[in-house]
Write the structure tokens for this entry.
Amino acid sequence: MPLPAEYAFVGDPAALERAGLFVAEGRIVVERLLEGGRFRLHSVAVTPPAAAALKDLVGRREDVPVHVCASAELRETTGFDFHRGCLALAYRPAHVIPIDELVHGRRLLAIEGVSNPDNVGGLFRAAFAFRVDAVLLDAAAGDPLYRKAIRTSMAATLRVPFTRIADWRDALTALRDGGHRIVALTPRPDASPLEAYDPKTSRLVIAVGSEGYGLSDALMQTADVRLRIPIDPRADSLNVVVAAAIALATLR
């Protein structure tokens, strides 16, 4: 059975999105996608070795079409050489999760302007590791369902609930008015040291921004507190994923 035509979109994120799909790659990621149940699956494409490795799991998901094909066919159709021989297509959610469904989370991570998929994936990986209840993304943040973000996150983008918010400042203000404290993570020297902060509440929104521009002035004005991670002055800065992980670990 030939691969479905949609596998030709693997290298074209815009075409995949127009088709309402996203792609997951690698056995571990596909395993977690199959196990998770959050997303409806279109199909799985595997080479014979990968099919053997996933036999038990795939056998429990009789609702998912599985296409076993040679590596050459997978490479020719997708335009990529997937060394692990395992891909899955899944349907994007038809609706964005309303923020009202996420406000009950104790700890939220707000991502503003971080477009690099490796950083987006890394932030979700840290969020999952430190038990963040949900991730909020502004309009400029990268796509958590882009294949590179999914891969970098080790499928955390498929596990941690997230929503994209158009009216960013209004949403954060509403969260603050509802009892969350907005914590802005920034390298600015006038910010308070992270380790000295006692939030006196477990309801936190920890906000991180892009490495180039940091958090916007609007968010900084909305925040209840600005925190910095003290580092050696000879170092320029920390990667946003590293900084977020340190903050999430410290504030847990």
About this structure: The chain is about 30% helix and 20% strand. The domain at 99-250 is CATH 3.40.1280.10 (Alpha/beta knot).
